[in-house]
Amino acid sequence: MTMALTNKTIFIDLIREIKDNIREMDAAPQHLPAIVQKAEKPAATNVLNQQAITNAYIVIATLYGEARGEGEAGMQAVLNVLMNRAKGDFSKVKGLALAPKQFSLWNDVKNPASTAIALGKQVRDKEIQGTDKAMYLKAAGLVDQAMKGTLKDITGGAQFYFNPSIVNPPWAKKMKKTASIGHHDFYKLLPPKKK
C-alpha cells in the first residue's frame, strides 16, 4: 500500500508541476491541421488507481524514450500512433507500447513499470533537468490529454512510423504515408480494395 501511495503522490506531483510549468513552455508549432482524437473510453482524471498511474508512467516513458529528441510534436505523433492502434481506448495503450518489437525502448527491459516509475522519480528528484525534464513534462501533459480524450491527431490517422534515415521497412510500400514529423515518417494501412 505504501508503494501505491508513493507512486500516486509522484504522479500527482508531476501533474501539478506540468500545470505550473506549461504556461512557461513554448507551444510546439502545428505544421498540420489538427483534429481532436476522440477517446472511446476516456479515463476518469479525478480518480486515479494504481494501475492507471503505472500505465501513464509507462506511456510517458515510451514517448520520452522514443521521441524526446523530436520535440513535443514528435512525442505527440508517437502517442497518436498508439492511440490510433488502440482505436482511441487509452486503457489499451500500455499493452501496445510494451508489445514485443514495437518500441525499441522496451526490447530488453525486464520490468517496464519499475523502469518507468524510476524515470519519473529522477525527474521529480531533479536528477533529470533542463531540456530533458521539459520534454518529460511535455510527454506527461500529452498523456493527460490522451487520458481525457482531448489529444489532437497530427498524423492523419497513422498507425506506424519509422526514421527513414535509419531503416526503410518493406511494409511501408504497402501503406499510405500520412505525415513527416521531425525525423519520422508516419503511415497507415490502405483501405481494403473493393471487389
How many structurally independent domains?
A: 1
Q: Based on helices, strands and strand pairing, what is the structural class?
A: mainly alpha
- Which range does the strand content fall in? 5-15%
**How is the quaternary structure best described?**
single chain
Radius of gyration: 17 Å
Number of helices: 6
Shape: globular
Helical residue percent? 40-55%
Strand order of the largest sheet: 3-5-4
Spans of at least 5 consecutive residues with low confidence: 22-34
Count the beta strands.
Answer: 5
Explain what this protein looks like in three dimensions.
It is globular, with a radius of gyration of 17 Å. A hairpin with a 2-residue loop joins strand 4 (175-181) and strand 5. It is mostly helical and 195 residues long. It has one domain. Mean pLDDT is 83; it is low at 22-34. The longest helix is centred in the first third of the chain and has 21 residues, at 2-22. The protein starts with a helix and ends in a 6-residue tail after the last strand. The protein has helices at 2-22, 50-67, 71-85, 93-97, 112-124, 130-148; strands at residues 35-36, 152-153, 160-162, 175-181, 184-189. The chain has six helices and five strands; from the N terminus they run H-E-H-H-H-H-H-E-E-E-E. It has a three-stranded antiparallel sheet with strand order 3-5-4. A two-stranded antiparallel ribbon has the order 1-2.
